[in-house]
Amino acid sequence: MALIPFDDRDGFIWFDGKLIPWREARIHVLSHALHYASAVFEGERIYGGTVFKLAEHSQRLIDSAHILGMDFPMTAAELDAATKATIDANKIVDGYVRPIAWRGSEMMGVAAQATKTHVAIAVWSWPSYFTPEARMRGIRLQISDWRRPHPQTAPTSAKAAGLYMICTMSKHKAEKEGFEDALMLDWRGQVAEATGANVFFVIDGAIHTPDPDCFLNGITRQTVVQLAKDRGYTLIERAMWPEDMAKAQECFLTGTAAEITPVREIGPYQFTPGEVTQTLLSDYEALVRK
Q1: Does pLDDT of 1 surpass 60?
Q2: Whether 159 is catalytic
Q3: CB 260 within 8 A of CB 284
Q4: Which residues have C-beta within 8 Å of that of residue 274, sequence separation ≥ 6?
C-alpha cells in the first residue's frame, strides 16, 4: 500500500489561532524546534466524534510546555475549543489528534528567550484496525539498547519531542529484526516502558506496573489503573527488574495509540494473553465508546 505523505493531504489544520488548508501548514527551516527539539506534543483519540480525556491531554500539553520554559499562548479551555473546531472542520468521527507547540525562528542558537511559541492541531481518520479478539494474539518486543534517562538529565515529566529520539531508534531496530516494538529499561536497568506506551504485567492474578518516576504516567495508563481497581484487581506500582518478567503470566501495553495491546514476548520472556488482559481490554473499549 502506498503511503500518503502527511504534508500532502486534504483538510484543515489549526495553526496559531485559525484553521488553514492542510498543505499550507508550514514552518521555517530555521525554527528553533527543528534544531534543538524545543517542542512538546500530545496524542489523542477520537471515538464517535469525541476526544477521550481531552481536558487532561490539553492540560498536559500546557504543563509540558511550561516544564520546557515555553510560554503557552492559550488556556486549556481555548485549546479544547480549537481541537473540537479542527475535528468538525475535517469531519472526523474516529481518528487521531496531534496538537503540538514549538519555539519559532526568531532566534537561532541554544538560547531561545525571544522565540514565539507556536501551536498547531492536526486530526486525521484512524479507526480501530483490530477487534479485541484479534488483538489477543499479542505482539513481540525486543529489549532496547537505549535507556530512559535520569530525571536530572532530561525533562522526563514532559511529553517533549527530544525524549522520543531514542524511541524511534529503538523501534526501527526492533522492526528491522522482526519485532513489533521495543521495551526500554531506565538508567538503573529497571523496566520502564515501550517506545510509546506504558507496560503492565499480570503475576499470579495481581497486576504489576513500573513506577513512573522517569517516564510519563500516561493518561491511558491512569485510566487502566482505575479500571483494574474498579474490577477489584490487586494493582501494584513498583520498581520492576527484567527478571521480574519471568514471573509474569500476562503482559500488555497501554497508550493512546496502543489502547490496550496484549504482548506475548519480550526478549527471552514469554506471556500468554489471558483473562485479565481480555477483561481490561473489553472494559476500556466500553469506556471510550460510551
Answers
A1: no
A2: yes
A3: yes
A4: 202, 249, 250
Catalytic one of 18, 116, 159, 247: 159
Task: Report how far residue 249's alpha carbon sits from residue 270's, in angstroms, rounded to the nearest whole number.
Answer: 8
Number of domains present in the structure of the chain = 2
pTM above threshold 0.85 = yes
Q: How many residues does the chain have?
A: 290
3 inside domain: no
Name the amino acid, one letter, at 27: I
139, 263: one domain:
yes
Q: Which CATH number goes with the domain that contains 73?
A: 3.30.470.10
Phi, psi angle pair for 232, to nearest 5°:
85, 10
Question: Per residue in 80-129, pLDDT tens?
Answer: 999 999 999 999 999 999 999 999 999 999 999 999 999 999 999 987 65
Which of 125, 142, 174 is the last residue in one of the domains? Answer: 125
Q: Is residue 253 part of a domain?
A: yes
**Looking at 116-267, which runs of residues are DSSP E strands?**
117-125, 139-148, 181-186, 191-194, 198-203, 206-210, 235-238, 250-255, 259-266
